[in-house]
Amino acid sequence: MPTEAASDPPPSAAWEALSDGALLRLAGDWRGRASLPAPPAGLAAGQQLRVDTQDLTHFDSGLASALWALAGRGARLDPAGLPEGLREVLALAGSGLASAAPAPRSRLLSRIGLQWAERLDRGQTTLRFVGEVLQAAARALRGRTAMRKADFMHQLQATGPSSLGIVSLVSFLVGLILAYMGAAQLQRFGAQIYMADLVTIGVVREIAALMTGIILAGRVGAAFAAQLGSMQANEEIDALQSMGLNPVEHLVLPRVLAMLLVAPLLTTYAALVGMLAGLLVAVGIYDVEPIEYLVHCRDSLTLSHLGIGLLKGTVYAVLVALAGCRQGLNAGRSAQAVGDATTAAVVQAIVWIVVAASALTMMFQRLDW
């Protein structure tokens, strides 16, 4: 809006016909003036309506309302000649700006293009974040990092021992389910003892890692996103950057390394609990001797199965940490944005886990491991 002069000229408005529409020339002080002259009779719906505000000195919301009503008659209002304040008000009002009122087909294509552009932007943000984490990890290996030992130990406690309770419960119940399902089929052939092989291989190779990853996604990944999102909303991350501290090294790296360290331990613990649940079902319901069950477990458990299970559990846990920290660092600055980031972190982590599980399973099967 131009600077107020000592005496402002009275408001004036004049229409000028154009080949593809009409031009409205506005001049003077339009504060308190909300009426515009009627457009030319030959202005058809869909034609462009340009506005010349070069001589406009002042305006208020009344002029924006009048232009909005004018655009609502079917003309396509070109925002190029409007002051920035008027453009912003009309954009919020959802007026028929020329750039915002395409044909239905163009509107659909624009919406699809915008969605893909947003997805590409999120993908670039994720790749950039993963690259920064890898660079921070490389600096940590060389002893050049801002990560504090106290932060790392705190995250170890939060991700490891604090998760044992829920991991124990879920792993035990899943082990029971797997043992019941396997025994119900094997009993038809009188081969209940082989449920030990089924439970051991299934739990150690696949289920323990998968259940641990999903549990960590709901418990730890959500906590990472909420913590970092709250710091982002409170401008604490901006404060770290203003002090010359790298947020990835200071906040993300301790969480990722903690998950990397506790993942094999939690996966091993979950596998042991699942095997114990299978033992209880085999001994208590199907009258399998405990020693015989343990011998079959020992014979079926190979280094290949154990290594694959631990590798999968570690990969899933790292993906959970990356998803939680990525969503937290890129959250908005409101309570709603923090909640959205927490939800997105859990969903993204579970999707990454399922994709990684499918890819790793197919790869190991093709390699005959």
UniProtKB/TrEMBL annotation:
<keyword id="KW-0812">Transmembrane</keyword>
<dbReference type="Pfam" id="PF02405">
    <property type="entry name" value="MlaE"/>
</dbReference>
<dbReference type="GO" id="GO:0043190">
    <property type="term" value="C:ATP-binding cassette (ABC) transporter complex"/>
</dbReference>
<dbReference type="GO" id="GO:0005548">
    <property type="term" value="F:phospholipid transporter activity"/>
</dbReference>
<protein>
    <submittedName>
        <fullName>Phospholipid/cholesterol/gamma-HCH transport system permease protein</fullName>
    </submittedName>
</protein>
<feature type="transmembrane region" description="Helical">
    <location>
        <begin position="337"/>
        <end position="364"/>
    </location>
</feature>
<dbReference type="InterPro" id="IPR030802">
    <property type="entry name" value="Permease_MalE"/>
</dbReference>
<keyword id="KW-0472">Membrane</keyword>
<feature type="transmembrane region" description="Helical">
    <location>
        <begin position="256"/>
        <end position="286"/>
    </location>
</feature>
<keyword id="KW-1133">Transmembrane helix</keyword>
<feature type="transmembrane region" description="Helical">
    <location>
        <begin position="163"/>
        <end position="183"/>
    </location>
</feature>
<feature type="transmembrane region" description="Helical">
    <location>
        <begin position="306"/>
        <end position="325"/>
    </location>
</feature>
